[in-house]
Specification:
By secondary structure, the chain is mainly alpha-helical. It folds into 2 domains: 35 residues; 213 residues, MetI-like (MetI-like fold). It contains 12 helices and no strands. The longest helix is centred in the first third of the chain and has 37 residues. The chain is flat.
Length: 268
């Protein structure tokens, strides 16, 4: 049996650390609940216009009604599925293109100005083009999500590949390693932190692209509910969809964070 007895100083340190975590979590929960309570009170007492800003009780009732009708889960599922699909395709394609640019200096120099131009173009402007090309369906929405995330992935990963320690690469090449072996044994392992950072950025960008795509070309999803609610002046539906969107973004982000922790444990 390993000795698990800690010194008094270490026990005090652990106790203070647990207390600090509880205080942080408590403060976060207090701020969240306080915000909704203040919102409800302000709307009930007329400090803000409840028709324009809605209020938590109305939003809750609207979401419950959608849930009972089965519409809430359909729209939520569409948005999550389109985001995950766009995020996955955009990330994988971006990493593969970044590998190609690292592999060929000639292609990298040729494509560099085009990548800069594509990165500077507001992706929202591409939405109507995708609608005309692909129609008002899930393909256009996913294409929008991909367009938002892929360029960022290419730029981040290509920069990460170029910043790998050149001495490690020279060492592998000195022992007769091929370029493919350098990529597999040195470049990709050394770029895992950059890859995780790209995933964290992309999960938010993909969700933004999905919502913009749903604004323009979808008959389902949280973006569609936001547009529809605004058109019929149902602000409870709009605010509820926005809050659900915030919840989805948090879940997706912590999903990537969980993946980061698993990868970090595997590397130690």
């Amino acid at each position: 049996m390993p000795n698990t007895t800690y010194s008094k100083e270490h026990q005090n340190y652990l106790r203070r650390r647990r207390l600090h975590v509880l205080l942080v979590r408590g403060a976060q929960l207090f701020l969240l609940l306080g915000f909704f309570v203040l919102w409800e009170v302000a709307a009930s007492r007329g400090w803000i216009n409840a028709f324009i800003f809605s209020q938590p009780t109305r939003i809750w009732a609207a979401m419950l009604r959608l849930a009972r009708e089965g519409e809430l889960w359909r729209h939520l599922g569409w948005t999550v599925w389109e985001t995950v699909l766009g995020f996955s395709i955009g990330t994988v394609a971006g990493i593969l293109i970044a590998i190609l640019l690292w592999w060929s200096t000639f292609i990298s120099k040729v494509m560099d100005p085009y990548i800069v131009v594509l990165n500077s173009v507001p992706k929202v402007a591409l939405g109507p083009i995708f609608v005309v090309w692909l129609g008002t369906n899930i393909t256009a929405v996913v294409a929008m999500a991909i367009s938002v995330s892929i360029i960022v992935t290419i730029m981040m990963m290509h920069t990460g590949f170029k910043e790998v320690d050149s001495n490690q690469i020279k060492l592998v090449r000195t022992f007769g390693g091929t370029k493919g072996q350098v990529l597999r044994k040195v470049v990709i392992p050394a770029s895992v932190p950059t890859m995780i950072a790209a995933l964290k950025v992309n999960v938010g960008l993909s969700l933004v692209g999905t919502i913009v795509g749903e604004f323009l070309a979808s008959k389902a999803g949280l973006g569609y509910l936001i547009i529809y609610g605004g058109q019929v002046f149902n602000m409870s539906l709009v605010m509820g969809s926005v809050l659900l969107l915030l919840a989805v973004s948090v879940v997706l982000y912590y999903g990537v964070t969980f993946l980061e922790e698993k990868v970090s444990r595997g590397r130690t």
